[in-house]
C-alpha cells in the first residue's frame, strides 16, 4: 500500500509527467477511425481535445491536493508534498453536484436513469452501513433533486448550469477550508492544554464525507524532556451540541 501511494500519487501526479500521459491518451483515441478523421479535418476538435486533456489533468491534480493524501507536483525539481486536508477523498457532495447535471444531459433514458440511480443509491448504501449520517443523505438527495430540476429547465447543452455547478463546488471547498482551520485550531488548543511540555510536529486531518462538522485527525507531538514521540488519533466535532464526537459516523 505504501509503494502504491508513493508511485501513484508520486510519479503519475507530477507536472512533468503530464505530457507523456497526454500523448498516450491521444494515441489511444487515434485507434478509432472516426476520431482520427475528425481530428484531421477539424481544428476545433483538435483544440477541444488538447484543452480538455490539459484542463482534466489540472483539475485532477487540484482535487487530489485538497485531501489528506496530497501530491508533489513539482518532483523531481521539488520533492515537497502539498496537501489541503480539506475534502474527503471521495466526496459525495461533489459527485452529486457535478454528476447529476451531466447525467441529465445523457440522451438515452435508460442510461440516464441508471446514472441518476447510482448517484443516489451509493450514498444510500453507505448511509445504511453507518458511514454517512441520515441528515447528510437528506442534504445530498435535496441537492440532487435541485440540480436535476435546474438542469432540466435548460437546453441540452446546459452551459449555464455547469457554471453554477462549479460555483457550488467552490463554495463547498470554501466552507471546508473554514471548517478545516477551525478543527485544527480546536485540536491544537486541546493538545496544548493536555500537555504544555510537548511540541506538536504535525496534524493530518480529513473530514467525514458530506459532513463538515465531523473530522478525523492524527496528531504527532514530541516531548524533549521525556525524549519521546506521541501519535494520537482524534475525532473532532465542530458542533458537539448537535453532533457529539461519538455520533460521528
Describe this entry's structure for a reader.
There is one protein chain. By secondary structure, the protein is of the alpha+beta class. It is built from eight helices and three strands. Strands 1-2-3 form a three-stranded antiparallel β-sheet. Strand 1 and strand 2 form a beta hairpin. The protein is flat, with a radius of gyration of 22 Å.
A few lines on this structure:
With 249 residues, this protein is α+β, with helices and mostly antiparallel strands. Helix content is 56%, strand content 13%. α6 packs antiparallel against α7.
Descriptive terms for the model:
flat, single chain, 3 strands, alpha+beta, three-stranded antiparallel sheet, 249 residues
Layout of strands and helices, then pairs:
Layout: H1 2-8, H2 18-29, H3 33-41, H4 43-65, H5 92-104, H6 109-128, H7 134-152, H8 159-194, E1 199-208, E2 211-223, E3 228-237
Antiparallel strand pairs: 1-2, 2-3
- Order of neighbouring strands in the sheet with most strands: 1-2-3
Report the principal-axis shape: flat
Low-confidence stretches: none
Number of helices: 8
Overall structural class, as computed from helix and strand content, comes to: alpha+beta
User: What Rg do the Cα atoms give?
Assistant: 22 Å
Distance between the termini: 25 Å
Amino acid at each position: 500500500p505504501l509503494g502504491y501511494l508513493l508511485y501513484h500519487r508520486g510519479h503519475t501526479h507530477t507536472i512533468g509527467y503530464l505530457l507523456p500521459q497526454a500523448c498516450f491518451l491521444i494515441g489511444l483515441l487515434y485507434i478509432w477511425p472516426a476520431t482520427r478523421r475528425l481530428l484531421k479535418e477539424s481544428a476545433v476538435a483538435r483544440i477541444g481535445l488538447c484543452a480538455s486533456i490539459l484542463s482534466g489533468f489540472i483539475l485532477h491534480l487540484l482535487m487530489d491536493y485538497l485531501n489528506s493524501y496530497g501530491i508533489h507536483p513539482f518532483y523531481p525539481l521539488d520533492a515537497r508534498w502539498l496537501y489541503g486536508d480539506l475534502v474527503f477523498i471521495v466526496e459525495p457532495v461533489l459527485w452529486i453536484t457535478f454528476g447529476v447535471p451531466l447525467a441529465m444531459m445523457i440522451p438515452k433514458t435508460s442510461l440516464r436513469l441508471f446514472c441518476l440511480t447510482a448517484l443516489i443509491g451509493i450514498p444510500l448504501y453507505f448511509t445504511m452501513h453507518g458511514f454517512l449520517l441520515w441528515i447528510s443523505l437528506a442534504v445530498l438527495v435535496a441537492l440532487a433533486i435541485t440540480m436535476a430540476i435546474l438542469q432540466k429547465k435548460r437546453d441540452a447543452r446546459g452551459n449555464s448550469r455547469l457554471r453554477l455547478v462549479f460555483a457550488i463546488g467552490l463554495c463547498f471547498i470554501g466552507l471546508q477550508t473554514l471548517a478545516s482551520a477551525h478543527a485544527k485550531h480546536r485540536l491544537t488548543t486541546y493538545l496544548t492544554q493536555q500537555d504544555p511540555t510537548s511540541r506538536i510536529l504535525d496534524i493530518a486531518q480529513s473530514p467525514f464525507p458530506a459532513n463538515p462538522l465531523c473530522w478525523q485527525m492524527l496528531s504527532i507531538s514530541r516531548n524533549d524532556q521525556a525524549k519521546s514521540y506521541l501519535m494520537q488519533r482524534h475525532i473532532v466535532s465542530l458542533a458537539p451540541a448537535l453532533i457529539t464526537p461519538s455520533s460521528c459516523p
